[in-house]
Amino acid sequence: MFEINLIKHQFYILATLYFIIETAGIYFAFHAVLNSRTSQAAIAWAITLVTVPVVVLPLYWMFGSSRFYGYLEKFHEATQEHLEIAKIALSQMEPYHVKDMQALEDISNTIKHLNIIPFTSQNSAKLLINGQKTYQAMLQAIEEAQDYVLLQFYIIHNDHVGETFRKLLSRKMQQGVRVYFLYDEVGSHRLSYHYIKELKQAGAQVSSFNGHKGLRKYLHINFRNHRKIIVVDGLKAFVGGLNLGREYLGEDETMGFWRDTHVMLEGPSVQTSQVAFVKDWYWSVGEVPQLNWSIQSAEHNARQNIMVLHTGPADIKPVCSLFFCTLINHAKDRLWIATPYFVPDVEIIQALKNAALRGVDVRLILPEKYDHFYVYMASYAYYKELQGYNIKIYRYTRGFCHQKVILVDDVLAGVGTVNLDNRSIYLNFEVAAYVADKNFAHEVCTMLEEDMSSSYLEALETIDTKPFWFRAGSRLFYLLSPIL
Predict the structure, then answer these.
(1) Residue ranges per structural domain of the chain
(2) Does domain 71-101+123-304 have CATH number 3.30.70.1280?
(3) Is 232 exposed, middle or buried, given 0-12, 13-18 or 19+ CB atoms closer than 10 A?
(4) Is 437 annotated in the active site?
(5) In the annotation, is 279 catalytic?
(6) pTM of the prediction?
(7) Active site residue: 220, 226, 279, 369, which one?
(8) Which residues have C-beta within 8 Å of that of residue 321, sequence separation ≥ 6?
(9) For 289-347, what is each residue's pLDDT tens digit?
């Protein structure tokens, strides 16, 4: 009799627990329907939260949110605490703001309404193609540092590339140079404690981006800081696609040759790159470093107009998506995009199709070799929808093409960290430099033409000839695109 009562008691406990979990699943299913960014995400979350809440509830808490709460409030807090610094920085940049850009009028209007730092004048941008040239330029700039180095990457490996940077930073710190070192703990999960310890012992200020403790840390695990930024003395800045690792030199046996693009900036655009770092640093550490906010125009009388756009899931408006659609809609003759991951949202797909219908030469350069199978598969789900619009897709065959570059007509080119996928556009903290200059656009055009010569033009009808498992798999991964 006692055993029967015990079994009944356990049954009631389990039934009560399941009732609570199921109720929570139904509650968060409504939450997903009301708050999910896309209809497919809302449907997927709602169905699974109701049917298998035990499994899906913790996943929804970690991956269901599309907003990164607390970040903007933290930056406003930093601005109030360091109001004089903020005033100085803004006043220094104000004379360099480009207020009249007739060739890019619609883009300028969008920037105004998004309340982001506009294009500035008297800049120079140097295109850095592939790992060797990029690392050489970075190391030389750090070697010349007199005051400080800000360094932020998504992925840092403690291989010979990471060690080269660590040793140089350690040597510069012995000369009195300050170093602020920020990394994403998801992207750099293989970075050893010993590497970080040696930097700290040498005098560096080191932090992971999401370095918070407890439940808050896990609720933010879906958000990544994908930015790659180096700022030296407030005089030079680097942004682009390269992280720190030997694979970016083409030394990874699996990936082989690695195609990537970075850019070195001088002029007022350096300070806007610095702003991105300061926001991330304050979120992570709660301090604003003492930096150089006085602006020095680029040498050799450079006159390039440049905007450094930093976007992320803390933005009140979807800045990255809105700005990218504006670039696509602005194109009149040519729109060339190189991206390793092609999993865009409905708005960008529609904008690409509209551009092609206007007679714009729309070309996408995607890698034939992939590093993430599920993203590669998902990209093919878009082929059917793009058929009949004269959109050309080039598959790069020389190695892995990881660059994130956009070319609009002959007037604007962008180099940065933004992939053409939902994660970059909505979930990651990103940064990109957009250069409004015909000479720079010509350089980028020449670079992309060379990339296309190492690619083959893939017919969109290719998807119709793929086996059933491939087509079914691509659709399945497409359904997961909101979190890919």
Answers:
(1) 2-63, 71-101+123-304, 319-483
(2) no
(3) buried
(4) no
(5) no
(6) 0.87
(7) 226
(8) 345, 347, 348, 425, 426
(9) 999 998 888 776 678 999 999 998 888 888 999 999 999 999 999 999 999 999 998 89
